[in-house]
Amino acid sequence: QVQLVESGGDLVQAGGSLRLSCVASRSLNSFNVMNWYRQAPGKQRDFVAAITRVGTTSYSDSVKGRVTISRDNAKNTMYLQMNSMRPDDTAVYYCNTYMWVGGLRRDYWGQGTSVTVSS
Asked: What is the C-alpha to C-alpha distance for residues 58 and 64, in angstroms, rounded to an integer?
């Protein structure tokens, strides 16, 4: 079983910055990749960023250049640094990872942390 706990969500003005954290209940080296997703009110959950076990990163076009994903293996924590924030960044942000259990992929999600960007 894996628990993921996000934190850091807040109300921020447009142009501001925020850092989200995701603490895992086990070593990050247990996971091939860890992701951030977000879900705006009334919309589907969308991919934001990913980081692999070896530190390779990828970003959605909507956040590329404004967002940095990182990880601290010693703290079992993944981060999402968001800069130059815009009102359309408003969403609940979720941490995600997966493991293969008995040949089946099992996804794990945190409870989410809410980000609101005011104009």
From this structure: 9
Number of helices (H), then strands (E), in the chain: 0, 11
**Is residue 119 within 8 Å of residue 87, measured between CB atoms?**
yes
For residue 32 the two structure tokens come to: 């091939």
Cα separation, 7 vs 34, whole angstroms: 16
Neighbours of 100 (CB within 10 A): 9
pLDDT tens per residue across span 29-47: 999 999 999 999 999 999 9
Report the distance separating Cα 93 and Cα 114, nearest Å.
Answer: 6
Selection from 36, 32, 54 nearest residue 45 by Cα:
36
Q: Is 76 within 8 Å of 28 (Cβ atoms)?
A: yes
How far is 102 from 51, CA to CA, in rounded Å? 24
